[in-house]
Each structure stands twice: as C-alpha cells, then as structure tokens.
C-alpha cells in the first residue's frame, strides 16, 4: 500500500497504523499529522494517506522544510497552489497582508508591485517593521516573504501602475489582486485588466475603514472574472481611518478568494 510520509513515498503493509509508521520512521516525533489534521489517537492508514511526523523545536533540513510547512494543508491542495501565478497590485495594508497569506500557503509565483516607500504611518496596518522605514515596499516585502517561505518565487517590481503597462504586467497571471488606495485607482485597474487581458481573474476590495462589525465584510462574485471583497460602503475619510483589524479582514477575504479560485472553486 502506498502512503506519503513527510512527502516521501513509502510502500507499507495493509492495515498498518499511523503510530506504527511513527515508530518505524521517526520514533521521537511529538506531532503526527494525518491528511492535514493532527491526531492524538491511532488510525489505520489507507492507500494514498499523507502522514507528517514532527519533533517539536527541531529545525528541519531544507529539503524537509517545505513538506512540513504545508503539512496542515488539506490533501491535494498544495499541488495546485504551487503552480499558481498571482499578482498583487499595491503593497499597503491590503496588499502586504494578502502577500503574507499567499506566501504562507505556498503560492508558487507572486508578482508584487508598488513604487512607494515604507513610512511610519504605514505601521498601524501594514506588514512592515521599523527597520523597513524608507525602504521601497516591494523590496521590504520580498525580504519578509523570503523569511516566511523560501520555496516560492517572488518578483518585486518598483513601478507605478497605469493603463499603459497593465497588459504587460498582468496578462500572464492567473489572478490579479487589486490592493490600491483611492476609488479612482481601484476602478482603473479593474477596468483595464478586464479590457486589456483575457486570462486573469481580478479580486478587488472596497469598504474596510473604521471599526464597524466584522460581519459587514463579505466576498461576492460580480462576473466570471471579477470578485469583490469588503463592506462596499465605509471608505477611509476624515474621522474614519484605516486600521489593522478591518483592513486585515478584507485582505484575508481577498487571499481566501484567490485560494478558492486556484482550486477551481468559483463561487464565493
């Protein structure tokens, strides 16, 4: 019977259990993950099951690290995620948070685009640190992503996106994440991606300011290529600022929508 143990193919006897595999392969493992879920009780394995054995506090070899990082994924997910190509336009509170979420799940290729620098006022909601102040956002975020997941390809582009460079930047992407400030810029990129390209789906966000209820933020499908996330009402303005909690909720709606599209789940 064929199973995967720490992503390595093994052929084992029928009716063998997860605990028996641990005894044979990594006796000192503290954590046993079976098909994405940590188990406390023994289970009889079935053909194709995926077992991950982890010793707490142990720094794995590089060739083992990726397998352990994705051990909590639902089975069959990583194969698709690893092949996905996602662009993130704008690396502020939305874009930097989306990038970290997609990097952690192992999206194979991320194109991150912004021409701005990290400023102190960004630190209330964006995924940067004091040491990044003054750095280009695309450079700082690439450094952060390299510390999170060294197994993905990150292309960082320092450019101002406009209707003249949309096609070249995005036509070979599977998904484009809109993460701009300002309604005019948001509308421009959505419009031009839909007009100038044929392949990528686009996920846009609108309405995440203030400290209104979490539950007002939703995802919706507009058409076969456009998806929207947010409360679609509460934009940033005087007396209503942008803060990490609601911006993060909207960003994670965008990231999860991207994951669903990668897995061919087209409904919200």
TrEMBL record:
Stored Gene3D superfamilies: NAD(P)-binding Rossmann-like Domain (3.40.50.720)
Residue ranges occupied by any THIF-type NAD/FAD binding fold domain in the UniProt entry: 71-265
Domain of life: Bacteria
EC number: 2.7.7.80
Keyword annotations from UniProtKB, A to Z: Nucleotidyltransferase, RNA-binding, Transferase
Top EC class, one word: transferase
GO molecular function (one): tRNA threonylcarbamoyladenosine dehydratase
Keyword RNA-binding: yes
Coiled coil: none
InterPro entries: ThiF/MoeB/HesA (IPR045886), ThiF_fam2 (IPR012729), ThiF_NAD_FAD-bd (IPR000594), ThiS-like_dom (IPR032726), Ubiquitin-activating_enz (IPR035985)
Any GO BP annotation: cyclic threonylcarbamoyladenosine biosynthetic process
Ranges for domain ThiS-like ubiquitin: 1-57
Protein name: Molybdopterin-synthase adenylyltransferase
Species in which this protein is naturally found: Clostridium chromiireducens
Gene for this chain: moeB
């Amino acid at each position: 019977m064929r199973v995967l143990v720490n992503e390595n193919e093994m052929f084992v006897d029928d009716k063998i259990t997860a605990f028996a595999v641990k005894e044979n392969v990594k006796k000192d493992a503290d954590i046993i993950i079976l098909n994405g879920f940590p188990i406390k009780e023994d289970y009889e394995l079935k053909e194709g099951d995926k077992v991950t054995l982890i010793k707490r506090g142990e720094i794995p070899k590089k060739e083992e690290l990726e397998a352990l990082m994705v051990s909590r994924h639902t089975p069959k997910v990583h194969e698709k995620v690893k092949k996905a190509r996602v662009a993130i336009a704008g690396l502020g509170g939305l874009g930097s948070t989306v990038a970290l979420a997609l990097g952690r799940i192992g999206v194979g290729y991320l194109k991150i685009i912004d021409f701005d620098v990290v400023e102190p006022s960004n630190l209330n909601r964006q995924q940067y640190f004091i040491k990044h102040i003054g750095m280009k956002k695309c450079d700082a975020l690439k450094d952060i992503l390299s510390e999170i997941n060294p197994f993905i390809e990150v292309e960082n582009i320092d450019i101002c996106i406009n209707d003249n460079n949309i096609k070249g930047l995005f036509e070979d992407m599977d998904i484009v994440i809109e993460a701009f400030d300002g309604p005019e810029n948001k509308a421009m990129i959505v419009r031009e991606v839909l007009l100038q390209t044929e392949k990528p789906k686009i996920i846009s966000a609108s309405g995440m300011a203030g400290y209104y209820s979490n539950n007002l933020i939703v995802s919706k499908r507009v058409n076969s290529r456009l998806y929207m996330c947010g409360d679609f009402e509460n934009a940033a303005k005087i007396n209503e600022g942008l803060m990490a909690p609601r911006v993060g909720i909207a960003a994670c709606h965008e990231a999860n929508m991207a994951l669903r599209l990668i897995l061919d789940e087209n409904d919200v």
